[in-house]
Amino acid sequence: MSAKNTSPNSSLRSPNSAAVTLHGHLQSLPSDLAKLIESFGLISLDMQTQFPKYLGGSSGDKNKYGEATAKLDNWANGYMCDALIKTGLVRTIHSEELREPLYHNDTAPFVVTLDPLDGSSNIGTNNPFGIILGIYRDDLPQVGRKLEAAVYKLYGPVNTLVYSVSGGDGVHEFVKHYHADGHAEFLLLNKNIKLPKKGGVFGIGANPADWNPRFAAFAQGLHAKDGLKTRYSGSFVADFSQVLHMGGFFSYPATKKIPDGKFRLYYECIPLSFLCEEAGGASWDGSASGDSVLDRIDNDVDARTPVYLGNKELIDRLKKEMRK
User: Fold this and answer.
1) Sequence spans of domains, the chain
2) 16-70, pLDDT tens digit by residue?
């Protein structure tokens, strides 16, 4: 491929200088996996044209966790699930917005996990949000290392798609580009992204008053000792994307009130931890054994977990601090 292996810190350049499409970049993969990733990208482009119709507040319903759902949450889940089923490649969908898994085609090759609208609290203020997709060949539950691929779509100032595959050649970022005829497609922006060796930003969720004191001391050190800048948007995808490009640390930790953490293991934490590790970073589930999030398995597909991810040096230091 002619695309330059750019630094994640490089500024956005004209997509035409790369001239590598998502379709072309996927051709080295098994054809069914390539088709599913490309289909997800195209579905996410189609979805955006419909967003303005569903921006008006809550749907009045609650999801299986008892949380109020936005109108856009419900619509995005239905649209994405229907479109994925129509590809003929998906036999089961586990979605954060489905009360039960959606079983469809026993002969289809893939099982997927889906967060159809990550960061829905950002909708009303027009801040970034996204979609998280995990792709497996085997039925769940599975450890994250069984992922075939992880993909996220980020709707921000520019619209990007990031993916990596098991045993592949890294983490790759594509940007939506419109051609002169109005046709939109994803073109390669950054190939084989690696977290910068020195972190630049950190974002941590939950109420600091509820943090473990050792974790609080570690968090304070990120700013005071390491000089990292605070960045927290309310969208896991958006905050992770900053760490991916700028290096650093992200967490929604275990707290006094929510010892199991807030984020869902399968829908959110495993796919983004997979991408983080493929980009040279590390993840941790907060367990005493020091396990990567990718080594954790839970028979409850809706299970939550504390999550800590970012530069390896920072994750290793956090583990030492928490064991004192």
Assistant:
1) 18-190, 201-323
2) 444 799 999 999 999 999 999 999 999 999 998 888 888 766 655 667 666 666 6
| Helix, coil or strand: residue 274 | helix
Backbone angles phi, psi at 156, to 5 degrees: -140, -155
The CA distances from residue 324 to 174, 254, 318, in Å, are 42, 17, 10
Question: Torsion over CA of 35, 41, 46 and 47, rounded to 10 degrees?
Answer: 120
- The answer to whether the CB of 232 falls within 8 A of the CB of 204 is yes
The span from the CA of 284 to the CA of 273, in Å, is 9
105-150 pLDDT, tens per residue? 999 999 999 999 998 778 778 889 999 999 999 999 999 999 999 9
Q: What is the C-alpha radius of gyration for the chain, rounded to an integer number of angstroms? A: 19
Do strands 201-204 and 184-190 pair parallel, antiparallel, or not at all (unpaired)?
unpaired
Longest dimension (CA), the chain: 61
**Is 215 exposed, middle or buried (CB count within 10 Å of its CB: 0-12, 13-18, 19+)?**
buried
Q: Which CATH architecture has domain 201-323?
A: 3-Layer(aba) Sandwich (3.40)
What does DSSP assign to residue 182? S
Three-state SS for 38?
Answer: helix
User: Given this structure, which CATH class describes domain 18-190?
Assistant: alpha beta
